[in-house]
Amino acid sequence: MIREEPVQDHLLSILVRDEPRVLTRVTALFGRRGYNIRSLSVGSTEHPGVSRMTIVVSGDRGVVEQAMRQLEKLHDVVRIIDHGLEKFVDRELLLIKVAITPETRVEVRHIAEDFRGRIVDVGRHALTFEVTGDEGKITAFTEQMRPFGILETMRTGRVALTRGSNADIPAQVYHDGASAALMPAAEPREERARQVPNLF
């Protein structure tokens, strides 16, 4: 009997050139192949002209490796980082509006304090909180607020950075020695550097 590999979430960072329709091309690649994107965040980086996409994609290991190979073919992609192969730190931002009554106001605020949540808006019948943390913390806080009545939520999706430097992480963590993910983003792969020699 063949045991199927369980579907897991994989965290990828993709450094891309900041050009029109890059986001569309990347997400279309996942969509055409039926990959499920659970969250997607995009923002600028320390290098002008380069943006960082953080994607959480569901699938088995083969699905992720196939997606990375396809992404490598896109001219807009500078580097792909598979955070499953190295140590990383990740965070997510949650904005959540919770219904309150005179009886529940104090309890709701105390629970938010336990999660280091910050009140960003106060109404007569609702409080809006800002909470940052890893995915587990965000999910736990949401569940704590559910009995009081959640009126609205917005989650940014996960963002991540590799921890430390090459010197901090054992070489055996990687398949081919030191992690390319920890190289400066200003050094794209050679073939792309030839195509756009003065990008950085």
UniProtKB/TrEMBL annotation:
Keywords: Amino-acid biosynthesis, Branched-chain amino acid biosynthesis, Transferase
GO molecular function, one term: acetolactate synthase activity
Amino-acid biosynthesis listed as a keyword: yes
Catalyses which reaction(s): 2 pyruvate + H(+) = (2S)-2-acetolactate + CO2
InterPro entries recorded: Acetalactate_synth_ssu, Acetolactate_synth/TF_NikR_C, Acetolactate_synth_ssu_C, ACT-like_dom_sf, ACT_dom, AHAS_ACT, AHAS_small-like_ACT
Pathway: Amino-acid biosynthesis; L-isoleucine biosynthesis; L-isoleucine from 2-oxobutanoate: step 1/4; Amino-acid biosynthesis; L-valine biosynthesis; L-valine from pyruvate: step 1/4
Coiled coil spans: none
EC number(s) stated in the UniProt entry for this protein: 2.2.1.6
PANTHER family: ACETOLACTATE SYNTHASE SMALL SUBUNIT (PTHR30239), ACETOLACTATE SYNTHASE SMALL SUBUNIT 1, CHLOROPLASTIC (PTHR30239:SF0)
Function comment: Catalyzes the conversion of 2 pyruvate molecules into acetolactate in the first common step of the biosynthetic pathway of the branched-amino acids such as leucine, isoleucine, and valine.
Similarity field: Belongs to the acetolactate synthase small subunit family.
NCBIfam families: acolac_sm, PRK11895.1
Protein name (Swiss-Prot/TrEMBL): Acetolactate synthase small subunit
Organism: Deinococcus taklimakanensis
Organism phylogeny: Bacteria, Thermotogati, Deinococcota, Deinococci, Deinococcales
